[in-house]
Amino acid sequence: MPEPAAANALVLDRPEVIVVDIEGTLSSTWYVRDELYPYSRKRFTSYFEEYSHKPEVARARRQIIEMAGLDSSATAEDLTGVLEAWMDEGQMPAPLRTMHALIWQEGFAAGEFVSPFFEDAIPALRTWSEQSIPVFIFSNGTLPAQRAWFSHSPEGNLIPLIKGHFSLESAGAKHEVSSFRNITHDVAEALGKPREKFLFFSDQVEALDAARQAGWNTVGVRRPGD
To answer: pTM of this prediction?
Structure first.
């Protein structure tokens, strides 16, 4: 006979699919704000100057000029000023997310960073993988930024533990019910899983509410200090 669960234990039916947020759930929100954001600020201008030939950078430049109403001859310093103003205002439009991702990828690849995870996060990812439960990530970060994060963990490359990634661009905003329905559709098409067996972990109440409205089960996560 199985032993009874501890009084404070959370007991759930086995999910068919697990979807996990990153900041505040697997990793601290403060690392991005205290380490990665300042790293980007120092490199925006030089990155525009050095990599203007990259299609992603050229696209980000066009978007910044259009959104900020800049002249087409805007300099790298002009573009940086807009990005920094957006950061100061707490905005995170697409070109800013793109530039963050490109710069962070370079930093991770150069060994400047090792992505931090809460103590229980990586063991949980490994356990779910061993139990053959597909794990997907849903984060505000772009897909390249997510992949850089998971491929440079303290335990090496975690990408093999992740079945797929969703972002604002690929699914929608985390507070929108439609975003979770989009994920349901994409995952169900790929894996043939029923939506009532989807389980979402996040620290964001609005995201949890949206997932519930989409027919998912949810677990709210609260981390000390976050």
So the answer is: 0.87
Separation between Cα atoms, residue 111 and residue 97, nearest integer Å: 21
Chain-centre distance for alpha carbon 33: 14
- What are the DSSP calls for the chain, one per residue? -PPPPPTT----PPPSEEEE-SBTTTB-HHHIIIIIHHHHHHHHHHHHHH-TTSHHHHHHHHHHHHHHT--TT--HHHHHHHHHHHHHTT---HHHHHHHHHHHHHHHHTTS------TTHHHHHHHHHHTT--EEEE-SS-HHHHHHHHHSBTTB--GGG--EEE-TTTT--TT-HHHHHHHHHHHHHHH---GGGEEEEES-HHHHHHHHHTT-EEEE---TT-
Decide if 17 contacts 133 (C-beta within 8 A).
yes
pLDDT digits (tens, 9 = 90+) for 43-96: 999 999 999 999 999 999 999 999 999 999 999 999 999 999 999 999 999 999
